């Protein structure tokens, strides 16, 4: 049995979801508060997850022709101000560097909150003709936004992300790239993180500062709140005009380029916790787990037990699994609980009796199901069980999403559902900003996205009753 | 023949080494100046190199138990000031953030110039007992130091690096880790970058701010100037005491930990250029080259030529090589020059006649040697040639290093050699700071390191004539 001493320190989810989240983050050693207010230290267990995110995404990006670069960390104020909507969106939340090398700077510079301005400045130098297009670039960096209230992974003054920036000869090509990257995010989130998402477009109110169109994937957390998981923006040629990024086309005419950007961040570690975690801690999908299998020797001081554990480890590593043996001097009960807190998908117990009988016991983190497997079948059975865990975790999350997605035909109904059952509510919208503003003011509910898969819930806007143009997913969001 | 139009834009090395360097950086598209003064944009070709550095080093680190983390980008002034020597060393060259979220900060924060203070602050929270030791952490990030004069890769206000930080229960263990990491740097630099290095210890004058001992690897550039390639520091317990990082040892006593840090940076892209490059451009060692083989089709519009080029590419990729086909509409001459500028180790030419005769022509970037190889032997011959290139490039650099390493027994001789022949000069030293200061003031010559392999050049200090204690490598450095 799992040792209670370890798990008791996690506040039950039903009692206080926010505290449960913080407890899991701390107990699973994903991150730590630092002495720098609003900033976090991403600890080895958290960073190993991010490394796996990066590895898979970077590979997927490169298969579509993405090249990585490194832009400066600081942006001079004059550069940030070149695009009007963009500076309005970001200027209030940036950190300003005003002194360097013991001198006051002639012009202050902000720590990048995002790098459209730097990429545009770069594109304006290297793009001359249609031969130089498209430029499909990306960087893996951290950005700073001076948030007032912060929560580990979800909202911090600094977070890690990738930001892709591309320029194209035509609007159609830019649009295609914008959607292509959104689909990469969606597929990764579903396939690797086992988190089902809704794909759609942001309303004008919710779109990125300076974008013509913002596409998004939205997921539902255990507390029924929505989380924006990844966004992809089509800027048209607004930025290009502001930064004078032009190219000589085949017809010998100077034309502005069309630009996109797209980002995926460490907040998706927060999503992993809030979609899959339980009162015993983290629950990691096998495909993304830094350690997939934790071998716990039972009565490890008895002759042959540790040797057997190491032997199984070697075999499983040879078969391509990520494995550790917990050979610490703690009790098995402590080790079980510890393995659960950290969310390791599969635990393998092996003791003197098991060795005698030629088998080990596999314990799934997600269902706690115990499976006896003979040593000779260990690799093949382990592969099957891990695949099941991955699939079952996705199906469980999908079921939750479906059960927490409702429809409403008027505003009272919408607000009532979000306040009681929570989750997403599908409802029609006239397309007016005023209706979104009104709903948000009254109830804190926001439009999450206009999904690509449209349905006709009713004929009139859920807020004003005028003819509807779109079906929208509504909800409360992180 | 290589097209002159492309190569003529590179200033000959003998004419102006600094300008040659800048030309190569620009023409090989490694990096670009940005609108942010003193900062650089690392372009795809430059970043792909850094990605290869990271991949190999990260793997080597992890094999020794290193775990990656992410610390905050900003350091509050009070934290920076905790260790006296450290703040004195870095405070004059940091960038200060004084405003955040449209408000003046209560305490200013610097953009990390290095992160000892943040790691120590973290260690003080997570290290409680001997069970928590060692902590062997690393991060891949960028840092900011407000340099007055800058040069791409070699000295910029922001550079990319990894910074490893560890804490240990004993001084011996810390010392062992310090040297272990220096040897990883040295082996990587020699084996992958084909750059021979001198391993040794920095003098007190040249060591890192706050360190008890700094170890270094030093290489020689084509112009005879030295470049510090990677450093590893043993801090003893000075930082631990300043930050109160203590642990309860097995004997139930509270003890300070012993700390190390070690770093390797993007300046090593600069080293690659200055050790191997020539008047035609970059020259990349095959083991680190993002593209190892550039297939150039000759008369590519003739039927079957491009198909053959793609076929060879597929075969070579299957054999594990990194290959591209230059199928642009440029002339072969332009493509040859372009391939040389970018330093691609091997060019494979294939035209209608070659296809008829069943062979391709391999052209080495380093020696320009041409080798005819039948299609059936292509993969095995290519492997051999790439291995030769790697070895020969290392041997050539080693020969240069040996030819530019002299000995001197008095100061006039030392200065004379450095001023004429340049390179390293081995000479004895009494161990006094004053002698180093005097030599630097008079001639700009600095101690590069006290090499691990000591020799007895003479009995007296090359500067003051008093009894010598150590043999030192002296030179001018970047």
Layout of helices and strands, plus pairs?
The structure is a homodimer of 478-residue chains.
Chain A: H1 4-7, H2 17-27, E1 31-33, E2 40-42, H3 44-63, E3 67-68, E4 74-76, H4 77-80, H5 84-90, E5 95-100, E6 103-111, H6 116-126, E7 135-144, E8 158-168, H7 171-191, E9 198-201, E10 213-220, E11 226-236, H8 238-243, E12 246-248, E13 254-256, E14 258-265, H9 267-276, E15 293-297, H10 305-318, E16 323-325, H11 332-341, E17 346-350, H12 352-357, E18 359-364, E19 370-374, H13 378-403, E20 405-407, H14 411-420, E21 424-429, H15 433-443, E22 446-451, E23 470-475
Parallel strand pairs in A: 3-7, 15-16, 15-17, 20-21
Antiparallel strand pairs in A: 1-2, 4-6, 5-6, 7-8, 8-14, 9-10, 9-22, 10-11, 11-14, 12-13, 17-18, 18-19, 21-23, 22-23
Helix pairs in contact in A: 3-7
Distance between the termini of chain A: 35 Å
Largest sheet of chain A: 11 strands, mixed
Characterize the quaternary organization of these chains. Answer: homodimer
Ranges of chain A where pLDDT stays below 50 over 5 or more residues in a row are: none
Question: Any idea what the shape of chain A is?
Answer: globular
Q: Order of strands across the biggest sheet of chain A?
A: 3-7-8-14-11-10-9-22-23-21-20
Q: What's the alpha carbon Rg of chain A, rounded to whole Å?
A: 25 Å
Fraction of residues of chain A in helices? 25-40%
Annotation, overall tally of beta strands of chain A: 23
Q: Structural class given helices, strands, pairing of chain A?
A: alpha+beta
Most extensive protein-chain contact, per-chain counts:
A-B, 55 and 55 residues
How many H/I helices of chain A?
Answer: 15
Share of residues in strands of chain A: 25-35%
- Return the average pLDDT of chain A rounded to an integer: 96
